[in-house]
Design brief:
The protein is an alpha/beta fold. It folds into two domains: 16-218, TIM Barrel; 227-320, D-serine dehydratase-like domain (Lyase, Ornithine Decarboxylase, Chain A, domain 1, Beta Barrel), CATH 2.40.37.20. Helices cover 30% and strands 27% of the residues. The chain is built from ten helices and 19 strands. The strands form three sheets. Strands 1, 10, 11, 14, 15, 16, 17, 18 and 19 form a nine-stranded mixed beta sheet that branches. Strand 4, helix 4 (89-101) and strand 5 (104-109) form a beta-alpha-beta unit. The protein is elongated and about 70 Å long. The structure holds pyridoxal-5'-phosphate. Pyridoxal-5'-phosphate (PLP) binds at residues 39, 61, 83, 170, 200-203, 218-221. Pyridoxal-5'-phosphate (PLP) is lined by residues 39, 61, 83, 170, 200-203, 218-221.
Length: 353
């Protein structure tokens, strides 16, 4: 089938661009001796995760337990990191069950509360859970200080059912190297192991080597790019593999067209650009500004376009934030040179628990 025969709006991925991105990032990590642990929360599909592993990834990152269950159920059971505090009986029961089906499973913790829960569940179920301590590296989200990391490390080390595997942070700009060095030195002084030193974020993905202490790197968006990565120069338009194909359904006047996809298609992510807020980049009309949405309508300012899109015309949109965009869809249509090669179910969409 030709891409033009697909009904719209439809989420597509260009296989040539996808493979280029997978290869160029994997080559960087291989060259620097850092393990690449792709974050599957971006694509949420088994097919791409299998490609990432086949190209040399050391394992996968899954933000939520439900995403990890999908990956392991799909045969990706070698090495999974869940960089999230798993709390509560419902999830701890699922976690220990997952540990039995996974060759190596590691979770993050940033409190004694999380650690005690993990230990009680692991000991009761007779499994061992790997734990990394999440340290605060600049996002003001989860994570502890260097001193607290040592205290939690000591707690993990003596907790039944747990194995201390090191530390993780998000994001890890090169500027956090002194903090990481400080933590590792404190760990060494206290005889605490740290086989995993895990960094992450696509923004700093090609600077991971500036923190030589990192043993692995978690990047999610590198396979697909997106409007933000285009503006930042990390991906060219051609390398932005994830595209929503949408149709112009209305042109109320010569300054505005409306697409058949809004927040339920593109996601509600908005980015500030030099032209103002934007929801996505329209490949065929770089001068256009996709400035607003309703649930099912995309509002596009075409006043700056010399040639203007007409009703019935199809356009390709690079979403601002690929991860929530993918989460809006049931399937991803994989294309190459304009032909449909596969339709991949997005099994991990909506797996927020
Ligand atoms: C813990 C963690 N690691 C890695 C990533 C991947 O970063 P990116 O989305 O920039 O590829 C994220 C993204 O949210 C994250 O939360």
């Amino acid at each position: 089938m030709h891409i033009d025969e697909l009904d719209t709006p439809v989420l597509t991925i260009d296989l040539d661009a996808l493979e280029t991105n997978l290869d160029r990032y994997q080559a960087y990590y291989t060259k620097h001796g850092i393990g690449l642990r792709p974050h599957i929360k971006t694509h949420k599909t088994l097919a791409i995760a299998h490609m990432q592993m086949a190209k040399g990834a050391i394992g996968l990152t899954c933000q939520k337990l439900g995403e990890a269950e999908v990956m392991v159920g799909g045969g990706l059971n070698k090495d999974i990191l869940i960089p999230f505090n798993i709390i509560g009986k419902q999830k701890l029961d699922r976690l220990t069950a997952l540990a039995r089906r996974t060759e190596k499973l590691t979770v993050a913790a940033d409190s004694a509360y999380t650690i005690n829960g993990l230990s009680a569940a692991a000991a009761a179920d007779g499994v061992t859970l790997g734990v990394v301590i999440e340290v605060e590296t600049g996002s003001n989200r989860t994570g502890v200080t260097a001193q607290e990391a040592v205290e939690l490390g000591q707690l993990i080390d003596k907790s039944p059912g747990l194995e201390l595997r090191g530390i993780m942070g998000f994001p890890t700009a090169p500027s956090v190297r002194p903090l990481i060095q400080e933590i590792l030195s404190l760990f060494d002084q206290h005889g605490l192991p740290h086989p995993i030193v895990s960094g992450g974020s696509t923004g700093y993905a090609m600077q991971a080597h500036e923190i030589p202490e990192l043993t692995e790197y978690r990047s999610g968006e590198y396979p697909v790019g997106g409007y933000g990565h285009l503006v930042a120069g990390r991906h060219t338009v051609e390398q932005c593999a994830l595209r929503v194909i949408a149709t112009v359904v209305s042109r109320p006047n010569d300054d505005r067209v409306v697409l058949d996809g809004g927040s339920k298609t593109m996601s509600a992510s908005i980015m500030q650009t030099d032209k103002g807020p934007s929801i996505g980049y329209i490949v065929e009309y770089p001068e256009a500004r996709f400035y607003a949405f309703s649930e099912e309508h995309g509002h596009v300012d075409i006043s700056a376009c010399t040639k203007k899109p007409v009703i019935g015309e199809r356009v390709q949109v690079l979403p601002v934030h690929p991860c929530p965009c993918v989460n809006e869809h049931n399937e991803l249509v994989a294309t190459r040179k304009g032909r449909v090669e596969a339709v991949w179910p997005i099994y991990a969409r909506g797996k927020i628990r």
